[in-house]
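User: Run a structure prediction on this.
Assistant: Running it now.
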Amino acid sequence: MAKENGFTLIELLIVILIVGILAAVATPLYLGYVKDAKTAEAKAVAGSLWTAVQSQAIASCGTATAVKSGFLKAGMDTSGNSTPARWSTTGGDNTLTVNCATGAYTAGGGDSGLFEVAGTVTDVDFVRVRLVYTSGSNPPAKLSCSTDSGTSYADC
């Protein structure tokens, strides 16, 4: 009588169980990494716009400079939309003023921030990144992020 080679049903069930447990643990981790990557993309757009607005405000020191004056330098169109159209900016009429003598910034935008970058396509439409400038804070410029379509914000 020849010995048959192969796996028993119990062995196969154990392997399937182990693979299932690994998948159950890895899926939430993977989804968290994806959310973090999409938030990082929005933060990069916000950082680019902040740098552009600062350079415009420094160049015209003493004069209130609208956020929208930095759109083109930040790689956006004149409406504040990125190319490709994944991100949209609100707060383009808010202003930043740089004092020529002291270099101090004064931002007009209130508690809602100087500007906000929001996702416009399905895979990023839940992401919002807001730049808030408060001269008395340390640091004065902070990014606040939301990954629930703007319901709640936290420092990011």
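The chain is about 35% helix and 20% strand.
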